[in-house]
Amino acid sequence: MGLEIVPASEADHRVVDDLARFYIHDMAVYAGWACPAEELLEPGHWFASYWDPAAAARTWPPGWRGFPFLLRVDGQPGGFALVKRLRAVPRTYDMGEFFVARQHRRRGIGRRMATVLFHTLGGRWEVREMPANIPAQRFWRRVIAEYTGGAFTEAREAFAAYGEREFIVQRFCCGGERSWPPAA
């Protein structure tokens, strides 16, 4: 099985939007979202800030920067990760959105994708899950515990940047090679 985790280009934005329809459908169960009754779900505006610095400046706190990644399995789109850099010093990242298509789940692909991202974007990390999303909590606890050797914290917190909504959040540090993200 060929696995690629690559920075998503502007040309990949539409591919991520297409995958995001499945992601939003999966998340609706935990978030209480309703899907549109008479039109196609258009997630593009939800994730525009990851590609467009001007959109990020309008919608995110100052200093946040988006890094979209595309997962390809055997050359075909299989998922995505949308990572935010919350601070440049110290480098602090947030796993904003993370999705592996159903046909690729339970094969270690999500764990491999998360590990590549942690390694590539070394620094401090925050990974949040909705309190109702127990499967995501199990996944992230297992992946982060394995990656860090158990050196992480977990709490239930409200986040001002997300309208004071509560999340379960894991925090940890990793070295990383910093082979990719631009410094700006």
What does this molecule look like?
The protein has 184 residues and is of the alpha+beta class. Helix content is 31%, strand content 32%. The protein has a seven-stranded mixed β-sheet with strand order 1-2-3-4-5-7-6, with helices on both faces. Strand 3 and strand 4 form a beta hairpin. The C terminus is likely disordered.
| Order of strands in the sheet with most strands | 1-2-3-4-5-7-6
Low-confidence stretches: 177-184
Structural class: alpha+beta
Order of H and E elements:
EHHHEEEHEHEE
Number of contiguous helices: 5
**Spatial separation of the terminal alpha carbons:** 35 Å
Assembly classification: single chain
Shape from CA axes?
A: globular
Number of strands: 7
Largest sheet data: 7 strands, mixed
Strand content: 25-35%
Rg over CA atoms: 16 Å
Range of helix content: 25-40%
Mean pLDDT: 84
Summarize the model shown.
The protein has 5 helices and 7 strands; from the N terminus they run E-H-H-H-E-E-E-H-E-H-E-E.
Features:
alpha+beta, 7-stranded mixed β-sheet
Walk me through the topology.
Elements: E1 3-7, H1 13-31, H2 44-47, H3 53-59, E2 65-73, E3 76-87, E4 92-100, H4 109-120, E5 123-129, H5 134-148, E6 153-159, E7 165-174
Parallel strand pairs: 4-5
Antiparallel strand pairs: 1-2, 2-3, 3-4, 5-7, 6-7
